[in-house]
C-alpha cells in the first residue's frame, strides 16, 4: 500500500500534517473507527486538532474515494481505508464488525451508470455466535 502523503498528492489534496496523520491512523487501525476514535487517537500527538478538522478531512478523503464511510450503525458513521472493496458483516449478538472478501462481482447496473463505490452490508450472527446458538 502507498504511503499517506503519496495517496493525498495523487488525488490533488494538499498533504498537510493533520491530513497525513488522519489517513495514517486509518491505514494502521483497520478497526472501522468513528470520528471520535480517530480524534482521541491523535489528540495527544496533535493538540491543535479539532473534531471538525477530523470530520472535514474524512469527508474530503471520502470525496476522493480514499476512504469509505460505513453506515451500518444507526448512530455512528464508521470509517475505513478504501484499499480494496470488501463487505462488512455486523454481528447483532456480539456487536463485532467483520470484514470479508467480495469474491463475486456485485450485481450489474443499467447501461450508462457508473459505479463509484460498492457497499455490501450484512447483519446477522457471526460464526462464533451462530455456533453458540447451535449448541444450546
Ligand atoms: Zn458474534
Ligand atoms: Zn472494513
Descriptive overview:
- This protein is an alpha+beta fold and 136 residues long.
- Helix content is 36%, strand content 17%.
- A hairpin with a 5-residue loop joins strand 3 and strand 4 (97-101).
- Helix 2 crosses helix 3 (35-42), helix 2 crosses helix 4 (51-63) and helix 3 (35-42) crosses helix 4 (51-63).
- The N and C termini lie far apart (44 Å).
- The structure holds zinc ion (2 copies).
What is the CATH topology assignment of the largest domain? Arc Repressor Mutant, subunit A
Shape: globular
Uncertain spans: none
CATH superfamily of the largest domain: Winged helix-like DNA-binding domain superfamily/Winged helix DNA-binding domain
Q: How does the SSE layout of this entry go?
A:
Layout: H1 4-10, H2 17-28, H3 35-42, H4 51-63, E1 67-70, E2 78-81, E3 86-91, E4 97-101, E5 121-124, H5 127-135
Parallel strand pairs: 3-5
Antiparallel strand pairs: 1-2, 3-4
Characterize this entry briefly.
By secondary structure, the protein is α+β, with helices and mostly antiparallel strands.
For the structure shown, list the relevant keywords.
Dna Ligase, domain 1, binds zinc ion, 3-stranded mixed sheet, Arc Repressor Mutant, subunit A, alpha+beta, 5 helices, 136 residues, globular
